[in-house]
C-alpha cells in the first residue's frame, strides 16, 4: 500500500511539472523550470516555452502581468538585464518583447538566466517599461520602440533613437512598406 502511494505521488508530481504538447501526431514532454513552477503555485498566468539550447528557461507572460513579475524577479536576485529585443511574430499577428535576465552573485561561476517573452497586439502595442528596475533597458526599449513600434509605458525618454523623428513607420515590422526614395543627409 505504501509503495502504491509513493508511485502515485511521484506520478502526480511528474504530471504537474511537465506539459504535454500534441504536435504532428506525437506527444512531447516539456519540462518546467523553477520559475514556471513558482508562478503556477502562486496562480500567475503564464506559458512555459521550455528551455533553449543552452538550458535557459523561457516563459511567455501577459503584458499586464509583466511589471509585477519583473519586480518579483528583481527581488529574487535577477539584478542584470543582459539584453532586450523585440520582433514581429507574423504579419497581422502580434509583437514580442524579449528580456534576458541574469542572476549575478559573488563567487558563482555559472549565473542563473531566464528569458521572458511579453507579447502585445499590433493594433495597440503597449508593454510596461522596466526602466525603473533595470536601467540598462533604456536604450534597448527605445530601439525596440523605434524599429518595431512597441510603446513602453512609463519610460522616461521614449523617442526614436536610430531613425529620424520624421520617419514614418517601423522598419522591422513584417508589414512595413519600404519607401521608394530615401533622402541622404550629410553628416556634420
User: How many helical stretches?
Assistant: 4
Instruction: Give the amount of beta strand, in percent.
Output: 25-35%
Q: Round the mean pLDDT to the nearest integer and report it.
A: 81
CATH superfamily of the domain at 27-153: NADH:ubiquinone oxidoreductase Nqo5 subunit
Give the SSE string: HEEHEEHEEEEHE
- What is the helix content? 10-25%
Record keyword descriptors for this entry.
Beta Polymerase, domain 2; translocase; 188 residues; NAD; NADH_DH_suC; two-stranded antiparallel sheet; 24% helix; 4 helices
General description of the model:
With 188 residues, the protein is of the alpha/beta class. Helix content is 24%, strand content 31%. It contains four helices and nine strands. A five-stranded mixed beta sheet has the order 3-4-7-6-5, with helices on one face. Strands 1-2 form a two-stranded antiparallel ribbon. Belongs to the complex I 30 kDa subunit family. Pfam families: Complex1_30kDa. Its EC number is 7.1.1.-. This is NAD(P)H-quinone oxidoreductase subunit J, chloroplastic.
Short summary:
The protein has 188 residues and is of the alpha/beta class. The protein has four helices and nine strands, in the order αββαββαββββαβ.
List the helices and strands and how they pair.
Layout (H helix, E strand, L loop, with lengths): L1 H15 L1 E6 L2 E6 L2 H8 L4 E6 L5 E6 L3 H11 L3 E9 L5 E10 L8 E10 L4 E3 L8 H12 L2 E3 L35
Parallel strand pairs: 4-7, 8-9
Antiparallel strand pairs: 1-2, 3-4, 5-6, 6-7
Amino acid at each position: 500500500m505504501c509503495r502504491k502511494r509513493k508511485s502515485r505521488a511521484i506520478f502526480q508530481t511528474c504530471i504537474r511539472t511537465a506539459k504535454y504538447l500534441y504536435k504532428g501526431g506525437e506527444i512531447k514532454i516539456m519540462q518546467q523550470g523553477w520559475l514556471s513552477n513558482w508562478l503556477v503555485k502562486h496562480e500567475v498566468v503564464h506559458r512555459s516555452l521550455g528551455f533553449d539550447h543552452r538550458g535557459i528557461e523561457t516563459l511567455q507572460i501577459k503584458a499586464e502581468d509583466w511589471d509585477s513579475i519583473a519586480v518579483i524577479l528583481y527581488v529574487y536576485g535577477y539584478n542584470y538585464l543582459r539584453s532586450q529585443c523585440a520582433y514581429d511574430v507574423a504579419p497581422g499577428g502580434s509583437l514580442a518583447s524579449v528580456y534576458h535576465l541574469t542572476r549575478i552573485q559573488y563567487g558563482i561561476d555559472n549565473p542563473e538566466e531566464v528569458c521572458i517573452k511579453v507579447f502585445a497586439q499590433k493594433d495597440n502595442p503597449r508593454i510596461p517599461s522596466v526602466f525603473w528596475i533595470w536601467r540598462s533597458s533604456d536604450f534597448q526599449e527605445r530601439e525596440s520602440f523605434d524599429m518595431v513600434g512597441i510603446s513602453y509605458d512609463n519610460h522616461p525618454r521614449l523617442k526614436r533613437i536610430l531613425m529620424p523623428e520624421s520617419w514614418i513607420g517601423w522598419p522591422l515590422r513584417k508589414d512595413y512598406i519600404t519607401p521608394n526614395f530615401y533622402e541622404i543627409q550629410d553628416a556634420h
